[in-house]
Amino acid sequence: GKGLWQKMASNNNNTGGDLKPKVKVPATDIPAELQTIIAEIIPSTDPLDKPTFDPIEYINNMFPSEQSLVNVDAALAKMKTMIGRTDAEILKSVREQVSAGSKGKKNLTEARCCFGKDEDNDWTN
Question: If I label 22, which of 31, 59, 95, 108 is the partner at 20 to 30 A Cα–Cα?
């Protein structure tokens, strides 16, 4: 069956039936081997994570008919919630990395001090 974009395009006589979005989605530059490794490490069932993600197909699945557009506000609210959660996860990860980096630097400094004071031991052997 036709999705909403195709139905709108076929019903529109003013533009010659061309209502497809003018935005081109760039193809992913991530090699297939790396995509496979990422999928193994971080498995996901979210269609947005697929390398073959097609935004038009995704929208058509969410809103298969004009009548289904009554749910657009709920879909937008759900997406905003997902974006908020993702932002929080990113912020948490960044903070953890900064903390780990600071602790690592402190530990390295302490280790250098200890090794510098203990000249009787040859740690290179």
Answer: 31
